[in-house]
Design brief:
Length: 429
């Protein structure tokens, strides 16, 4: 359905069509605005701009709603599993039992990585950040799997998607093992996705490893919660990279690079580092004061969100999972946790945070949970990237399959020097 709106530019009325979605705000179609007025629109940070049409994920930031293909995130996290969520995001519907078995089998068959990748890993320093390794290794997949880089072939696109969903845990675990100086552990395909990942991270050849089902379920839930999040910075990066026709492995590597930043996926690592820096609950008031001070760049990491201005529905589920994991592991007197719980309470009541609607976000709780499971902070964003890979792929596929797709090419407001003539070095004063 569409209607019209009128914009007045230099006393000239410009008719613009309004497009309506199934839910959420309508959009004013300005794609012809430049041709009609000679003007661009200006929206740094894209706070009022829809960059694409999508059927995958819906967020209502004021109501704290997150839907994957129409299903509320809490229902999926409560009743579903991660591979089922992957199927839903990729194909638009929840799988039947037969479709699920087939999908799980297809993903599982791709879990191993080319043996030559091992050599690629050993080129890194042992103290390399695992996200640096992930950016490089996922990009390098395009050098290993030439038979799935032709984006015009739907079969190759499907194979590349399966490969990335399947190999991401293997690569992430290899990045971790390399970092801690332990031998790589190969995937074991009779385990489910999350159990397999836990085993590849924490098993050693010298001992038998038994997967803890509570931890494996908690990890699976963390993966579901992170699987997609509409047109965020890394997803937009993947779409923009893909719009030029770049191969899918290169596009996902671009998404991983973007996710690494502390304002995005790097926030879980930054949140835990902040808790460590605060150290004891008595220092919290000092840090709250720093966060409120306009002249101090310090922010409470793990608080606030660009879209959720009421609460982050993922944070609510994550908070429950955090407590389940801590109770399973018998962790009661962790000083870090004391700081986290008290900080959460103080910030929830503090006028500054309440007024600006700065609630704990998913990263605040996921960091605590992952630490309790035994992951070092440097791995937190890697786990986020692992889970988000399916969302990036679903969004990339949707874009490739859209017949109206063109290369993404934003314009700018130029404020530099007007045209001027070159002067030789001898003539410059
Ligand atoms: N601590 C203290 N003050 C804050 C914080 C914070 N965490 N976040 C926002 N503010 C203040 C900010 O100073 C500004 O105040 P004023 O209006 O007086 O200038 C106001 O709140 C609005 O902030 P903003 O930067 O304009 O908001 P934004 O929508 O551009 O930023 C954000 C959103 C998530 C980048 C920001 O809240 C932040 O930096 N949070 C900490 C990092 C973090 O936890 N990021 C994870 C986001 S969730 C995971 C993901 O989606 O990747």
């Amino acid at each position: 359905m569409s209607s019209n709106s009128t914009l007045s530019v230099d006393n000239k009325a410009v008719d613009l069509s309004v497009k309506e979605g199934t839910i959420g705000p309508s959009v004013i179609d300005i794609s012809k605005l430049y041709a009609q007025t000679g003007m661009f629109t200006y929206d740094p940070g894209f706070t009022s701009t829809a960059s694409c049409e999508s059927k995958i994920t819906y967020i209502d930031g004021d109501k704290g709603v997150l839907l994957y293909r129409g299903y509320p995130i809490d229902q999926l996290a409560e009743h579903g599993d991660f591979l089922e969520t992957c199927y839903l995001l990729l194909y638009g519907e929840l799988p039947t039992a037969a479709q699920k078995a087939d999908f799980d089998y297809r993903v599982t068959r791709h879990t191993m990585v080319h043996d030559q990748m091992n050599r690629f890993f050993t080129g890194f320093r042992r103290d390399a950040h695992p996200m640096a390794i992930m950016v490089a290794c996922v990009g390098a997949l395009s050098a290993f799997y030439h038979d799935s880089t032709d984006i015009s072939d739907p079969h190759q696109r499907m194979v590349a998607s399966m490969r990335m969903i399947a190999k991401m845990p293997t690569l992430a675990a290899m990045a971790y093992k390399y970092h801690v100086g332990q031998p790589f552990v190969y995937p074991q395909n009779d385990l489910d996705y999350s159990s397999n990942f836990l085993r590849m991270c924490f098993a050693v050849p010298a001992e038998e490893y038994k997967v803890n089902p509570v931890l494996s379920r908690a990890l699976d839930r963390i993966f579901i919660l992170h699987a997609d999040h509409e047109q965020n910075a890394s997803t937009s990066t993947v779409r923009l990279a893909g719009s030029s026709g770049a191969n899918p492995f290169a596009c996902i590597a671009a998404g991983i690079a973007c996710l690494w930043g502390p304002a995005h996926g790097g926030a879980n690592e930054a949140a835990l580092k902040m808790l460590e820096e605060i150290g004891t609950p008595d220092k919290i008031p000092m840090y709250i004061a720093k966060a409120k001070d306009k002249n101090d760049p310090f922010r409470l990491m793990g608080f606030g969100h660009r879209v959720y201005k009421n609460y982050d529905p993922r944070a609510r589920i994550m908070q429950k999972t955090t407590h389940e994991v801590l109770s399973e592991l018998g962790i009661k007197d962790d000083p870090l946790l004391d700081v986290a719980m008290e900080l959460e309470q103080i910030a929830l009541k503090d006028e500054y945070f309440v007024e600006k609607k700065l609630y704990p976000n998913i990263d605040f709780y996921s960091g605590i949970t992952l630490k309790a499971m035994g992951f070092p902070t440097s791995m937190f964003t890697v786990l986020f990237a692992l889970a988000r890979t399916v969302g990036w792929i679903a969004q990339w596929s949707e874009m490739i399959e859209d017949p109206s797709q063109r290369i993404g090419r934003p314009r700018q407001l130029y404020t530099g020097s007007p045209e001027r003539n070159y002067v030789t070095v001898a003539q410059r004063g």
